[in-house]
Write the structure tokens for this entry.
Amino acid sequence: MGHSEGVWGCGPSDNYTRLAERFRPAFQRIREGAVHRELNRKLLHEEIEWLRECGFGTVRISQEEGGFGATLPELFGLLIELSEADSNVTQALRIHFGFVERLLSLPDGERRRRWLQRIAAGAIVGNALTETGENKVGSYATTLSGTEEQLRLNGVKYYSTGTIYADWIVVSATAEEDDIVSAIVPAAAEGVDIVDDWAGFGQTLTGSGTTRFVNTPVEREDVFERETYTKYGTAFAQMVHLATLSGIARAAARDVAEAVAERRRTYSHASAARAGEDPQVLQVAGRVHSQAYAAGVIVLKAAEAVQRACDAQSSEDAEYADRANVEAEVEVAQAQTIVARLTLEATAAIFDALGASATARSKGLDRYWRNARTIASHNPLIYKERIVGDYAVNGTRPPFAWQTGVGASSHSDQTTGDNDARLKPPS
């Protein structure tokens, strides 16, 4: 009897399997080339195109508007599967799905319709948000300025994940009167220079490098004010990371099971003549599978909280909507602190089952830990643990948005400006 593909539980809905079957052939193709791409630094242009062809970027858009109408738990379930194939691809699309979520939260109107039509037609959106210079927290050195007739964008960004594959770029900038806005520009626009200089040891194919803007023209109708951010946007963005980590854990669990099943060599002091019969080796494989299972369950449970926060946006009960947003943020923070550690432990433990030969560069097994460590470093776990603890003990509101920079004020919330809001402590 051959090795199992893993028992991960049923999907997040009765509709999930039918939805996922549309995309699984593309996921399988992506999985088959993952090691080759990793070893040869082959960028993901072809793989992104496969997903564009099957409409993956439209999965959250309603069927009436040209998409598939997936719920958030269904989306994150799909992202887990995609990440099992290649976590680079999921991260490259992270801002795309975040921008789609922002569009879906807009009131019905020309801007919303225009952009959803672009996404439904296959457009992919990347990002140029973060800067590495001396800008203060809450501000950007990148500027959007000009006349009523013509706006121009100038600045340098880093961590431009996915932009090298994108048709449009979301750019955070400082506008008139120091307002923070998002300018959406074509990736092929005048003055845009996208550089593949990401030098991190993990997620090496995400294109998370430098993007420069020199007098890049911006249409005024494509400038989004801060108020258009979704209230659950930070939780959503972190959930993409958690789905990616969960998928990495599944891939590591799958690979260790397959390698143990095929392994013929053993040690003189081993507990059996074959690795596949060695109870200590089987224990490692079982623990890795269990960690991957737990990570996935936690991600999908947290996704339910984000769905509730999404649904609450249309509620007339402002207090209920606010609490749904707070609870989603806290649930996702709780999930992050555990899912990251489960995945890091799982991706390191596979070598205990496989021995020194598993470290061969040609096998590419090291990519799992490197990728997981890179993703888990994006939003520091220590701060999330403190945020959860402060909520549990003191009822302190979690921050709904944050930025990096110089000279941060303590515990600031970049969305509301409320640094010391308290809720009723949880019972």
About this structure: Strands lie at 125-128, 143-146, 151-157, 168-174, 180-186, 192-195, 210-218, 223-225. The radius of gyration is 22 Å.
